[in-house]
Amino acid sequence: MFPQDTWQTKTPGQVKLDADKLNAFAKAIGGDGVVVRDGYLVKTWGKPSRRADWASSCKPVISTLLLFAVQEGKLKSVDDPVRPWVRKRWPGKDLIEKDHDMTFRQLADMTSGYSRGERPGTHWAYNDYAIKLYANVLTEVLGTSLNDAALSRFKPFGFQDGDLFGSRGGAGVNTSPRDFARIGWFWLNQGNWNGKQLLPRESFIQYCKPDVPRDLPRTRKAGSDYLKIGTHGGGTDQNFPGQGVYGFNWWFNARMAGGDEHFVRHVPHDTFCGIGHRGNEVMLIVPSWKLVVAARGNWGGVRLDKTKLLADAISASDPSH
Q1: Has residue 1 been placed in a domain?
Q2: What is the domain count for the chain?
Q3: Contact at 8 Å (CB) between 270 and 288?
Q4: Range of 145's domain?
Q5: Predicted structure pTM score
Q6: In this predicted model, what pLDDT tens digit does every residue of 90-126 receive, in sequence order?
Q7: b/e map of 14-33 (b: 16 or more CB within 10 Å)?
Q8: Residues near 188 by beta carbon (within 8 Å), at least 6 away in sequence
Q9: Of 41, 63, 225, 306, which residue is 20 to 30 A from 11 by alpha carbon distance?
Q10: Strands of the sheet with 52-53, listed across from one edge
Q11: Which residues share a beta bridge with 172?
Q12: CATH no. for residue 171?
C-alpha cells in the first residue's frame, strides 16, 4: 500500500501492533511523530503535519539525490571525483592536493577527509563541514536547489505539507513527520513507488548496507575548512560510531567495530535509520517489520534505546517477532 494525497489509516491491531504499548512508545518519544506499517498510517502523536528541521536525518535524503544524479547520467557513478564540481561551484578555488581524489561516495560515507588531516578514504570522521561540501557540490551537479531537485524527483510521493528542504541554508530537510515517512517508505520498498521503479532496485541492494569498513581507523589529525564553506551544523570530528555501521548517510543495525554488539539493541538486524542530534530527529526503517517511524522527540540517545518500547508493541501482538 502506498499513500496518495493522504495516508490511508488502520488501527494498530489491524496491523498486528499492540495499541497500548505503541501508545507507551509514542509517549516516551514525545514531540511529533508517525508510525507506518504495511503502508498504512497506524499511529500519530503531537502534530504530524508540523514542518520543522530534521537535523542530520536529512543526510540520507541528500544521498538519495546522489543516486538520482547517477541514474540520470549527471554522474557516471557514486565514485566520481568531486574536484571538477568544486572548481565549477567556486571558480578560482580548488581542493588541496591531499583531497584531489575525493569522491562522492566518500562524502556520503563520512570518509572524505575534508577539513581533516588525512587523505580521502583512509579514516572515519563524522564531519558536518564535509556534509556542507557534499550539499554544495551536489547542488552544482543537479543544476538547481536541493529542494527543487527533490520535489521534482519525489513528485509521485504526493507530499501533503509543502517543501522538503528549507533549513540549514537550503541543505536541511524541513518537513512534517507524515511527509518524511514517505521517503522512508520509498527506501523500504527499494526505490519502488506504487508499482513504478523510480530508482533501480540494484542501487538499494548495493548501497543500503554498511559501507564504512569495521577496521577503518578514526581520524586523528585536524585540518581546516580551506574552502571556507562553513558547517552543516556540527564539527569536523564528532563522537559517533561509524565503522561497520554507516554508509550513504544511514546508520545500519550491524555489528559495531570492536565487538559483536549491534548498533540498535532492540530491533531486527535489517533496520536502518537516519539520526539527528544524537537521537532527537529520527527516521527508523525496519524492512522485516514493514514499518517506518518518523519522529522528532527523544529516542534515548544515538543508539535509540527507546526502540525497546516499539519492539514490545510488536512482540506483544505478534509473538513470532
Answers
A1: no
A2: 1
A3: yes
A4: 12-317
A5: 0.96
A6: 999 999 999 999 999 999 999 999 999 999 999 999 9
A7: ebbbbeebbebbbebbbbbb
A8: 285, 286, 287, 290, 292
A9: 306
A10: 52-53, 172-175, 165-167
A11: 167
A12: 3.40.710.10
